[in-house]
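Quick check before the chapter quiz. The format below is the same one you will see on the exam, so make sure you can read both the input and the output lines.
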Amino acid sequence: MGFGTVRAYMAGLGLSLLVIGAAFSARAAEFTAEQKTAIEAIIKDYLVQNPEVLRDAMVELDRRQKEKEQQAQAGITGDPSSKLYTSVNQAVIGNPQGTATLVEFFDYNCGYCKRALSDLANLMKADPSLKVILKDYPILTPGSIEAAQVASALRRQFQGDKFWQYHQALLGTHGPVGKEQALDVARSMGADMDKLEKDMKDPAIQAGIDETMSVASALNLNGTPSYVVGQDVVVGAVGYAELKAKLDNAHKCGKATC
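Here is the expected output.
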């Protein structure tokens, strides 16, 4: 039996003891005082003599939790009909019929998103077959929510390259971004402001943002920017090179790693 196998066995045994201990506590009333004492002594003696199994058990528990999360993510990212890809509450830029898709979850007040904006622009320039989906994920400030509401309503007027221009202008704004900044950029680009103000009050706008928040939660996203590319979830501004490599593979085999 190899060392790795022994460690796996010990971790499994540690988990088993923890499970037994939990079950014992839940059913303690079924045992006599003598039986309780004997069981408690066995568990305590083993853990005192082998404290490392607690560490190994926690490592194994963490591994199983991550594996479960990855399976849940794959159920979403691997389903072309999921809201991740098909929602009406998102902007589609680049090539709508592209053979590879990159989804970005962003916040208009995210400094890392601002710095990563050039990566996205360069990816689209280098890859005419790239479809990009932009999802408002306003998690940083109240102003982020306001900006997302304005941008979401504006998509009823601006689509494709026109919205991409708006997105770049607003994300490139210096300082905090909120309703005022988002409206100013829309006004400067010739938006119908009366229609925009009316559309912002439509409950469907907030419902769309809530939908994105739900998808992000299901993917276990905890920051911006976060991407989905080639069915992989990528958290953080990882840079042009890493995203390009994954997209190249997505073109070849439909996955981030071929």
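If your answer matched, good. Residues 83-253 form a domain with the Glutaredoxin fold (CATH 3.40.30.10).
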